[in-house]
Design a protein that fits this description.
Elements lengths: L5 H13 L3 E5 L7 E3 L5 E5 L4 H14 L9 H16 L1
Parallel strand pairs: 1-3
Antiparallel strand pairs: 2-3
Helix pairs in contact: 1-2, 2-3
């Protein structure tokens, strides 16, 4: 289970950066907490969402992404696997 702390959010952001994605925090009226811009590897997060919503939205996006494990270090691979398994536990 993911904890809802700023440290977790930072770990998710670092994982995405290492995997080649750019995370931006913008205001928006999209219903979810984050969205992936088509074919651009840019993730836009609603900056007005609370911390829990940001983490959940990014985790949901990560579950759908094809991330190359070779780009990540061992800790990031473990964290990515934890994120992908979280959905199974809900």
């Amino acid at each position: 289970m993911l904890t809802h702390t700023t440290h977790t959010l930072e770990k998710i952001e670092m994982l995405l950066t290492t995997a080649g994605y750019k995370t931006r925090y913008e205001k928006g009226n999209f219903k979810t907490g984050a969205c992936l811009l088509q074919n651009s590897r840019v993730i836009v997060v609603n900056r007005f969402s609370n911390l829990e919503s940001k983490i959940q939205a990014l985790a949901e996006l990560i579950r759908g992404l094809e991330i190359d494990y070779n780009l990540l270090d061992d800790k990031q691979v473990t964290f990515l696997q934890q994120i992908k398994q979280t959905k199974l536990q809900l």
